[in-house]
Amino acid sequence: MEQRRPDGAWHELDSRHLNEFRARGARPRAAIRREFTVPVDSHGAALRIAMRGVGQVAVSRVEVTDGLQTRRDRSWARRIVLGSRAPRRGLPALDWARNAGVLRIAFAA
Amino acid sequence: MIAAFQWDLARQAERLDWMLAQLPRYADWGYRELYLHLEDAVELPSLPGVARRGAYSRRQFSRLVDGAARVGIGVVPIVNLLGHTQYLIKAPGLRDLNELRAPDGTPLATGQVCPVHPRILEVADALVRDVAPFCTAGKVHVGLDESFSLGRNPLSAAEIAEIGLAGHFARYVGRLNAVALSHGLRLGIWADMLALLPAAVPQLPPAIIAYDWYYYPFGKRPRIELRNFAGYDLAPLLRARGIEYWGCPMNGAFRHEPLPVFGERLANIRDWWRRCSAVGAAGLLVTSWEPGRLAIETATLVDAAAASLWLRPGAADTAIMLADGLERVFRTRRPRALAGRLIGADKHAFCGYARWQINGRWDLFAGREPLEPYEADRRFFSRLRTRRMPAALVHSIAFRSYLAERDIFVRKAARDVFRLRRLLRRGAAGKAAAKLMAMGLEAAAFERAWAAAAGPRGPCGASRATPACTGPTTLSSGWIHGGWPGGGPGLCGRPDGPRPFSGRRRCAANGSCGSGCTTLRRRSRRWSWSSAGRTAPGTNWTRAT
Known about the structure:
The complex is a heterodimer. Chain A is mostly beta strands.
């Protein structure tokens, strides 16, 4: 999860590796759903979800809340797939500084 | 087929006396080779500045190797020489070996060694020369796994442009093989890079050994995680080249696990055993990685259970194998019931980064996911704690029980903050005050429950004077490492070694686990309160499923 600073640069708020280390996750398509929450400065913060590494992950139901009011991302109900399929040959390029997929969060008015 | 086991001393040093005591047991279980993953955990006189402070002395290491030889176990040191070579690069005199460079050409502080650096073979020779006296199985293992930075250095890029990436890798293996042969040793490498670069295999020197690893249960063929778990089979290719093939499962913890996922670990070992038998492998190496967050006895239990594969041919049921292991390690009476319960704990494993993130930050768990699975964990381990079991398992289950309590407490507290805000907005000041008081009481109860579980004797629950606490007593550092991130490996062998994360060693010195436990309790309290502070009103949250 990244937040844009006043100077326009994106700053990482927090991140998570997606390895499950379980047999049920060690398969080409794993039906595992995990919740991920991050504290942010305000409702108006410019946010995006960036995916790095190898493979794909689906993101859905993005919202910001302070317990009193909740704002949902416009694509709230849709599953947005980030990243690209793992390579079938060669040495994978593991570049942790490069985003393989980005979901810019745009809250409904 | 040779059965072999491994200790990851680079990530978690163990007490010498404990290791010496295990060797005859492993020999009884049929293990014939011991692989020692070292990095900088042993003195390397030819490479000053590499060995860490408090590393095993040459004398201590000789005692270990001699002890293994006395019971018929040959030792194979693992000295990484491509990936996982930060232990070399960290030394200022060796930093220039780094494959990774800044734009101005200066070596970065972290990375992996460059296979074509002018000094790499000199360093490799020094390293192999230093560990050669410990290579009592006649082999040296140079790792070469997970070397993803190949080709970043201009020197490497030039060679790759000439002979390709596979040729670049194979040529380096050839150079290292010449170094090993000059010391009268056979060269061993992990096989994952060969799975990614199979074109390298026909270019490799014959007579080396390839150790194929994969750590989940599988059917006939292991899989490559980086290829989205596509199956592969290196055995025919390696056989055609005259390269010896070994299969390598894993026995214990993935990173922060406080308890092995017993069923999956044993299924992984069983599947490798079947495959090794089917393809005529020369050996089965049960690897062990990063055991710093669990009681080492639980990983030993998996090794002992695995021995059923060759001690009781036809064994395949993981619960029965585990029962055999309990009998072998702990002399447990009626072990099948306990084995069944431990296999049952797999459903409640504290496993994967999504679960471990709570070790680092408590303010990331303010979502709305159901608490029921966490409550099921708590119920399961609360029940399990009432059962009789060996001390190492008692401690492990007690700690797992605490983690289950923490999972619920943290998530519930975050939700309560939101409830509190809603009460305040409605102007229900009285109710809000009552809620706040209730939250404070719950926090105090959480802390008391943990303190009670720990008792005045420390969180392992054992008196300093009791045998339960004076055996291997390796748990204390496991608890420390399990509680928060950043814990470095404990160091072994010298009473004046570093303190903060050397619980295992300190326990050896004290004959008890008291010091490590005290450290944990103090740290745990401070950390919990500082983390809880982040959930104060005013914080907002984003949430994604």
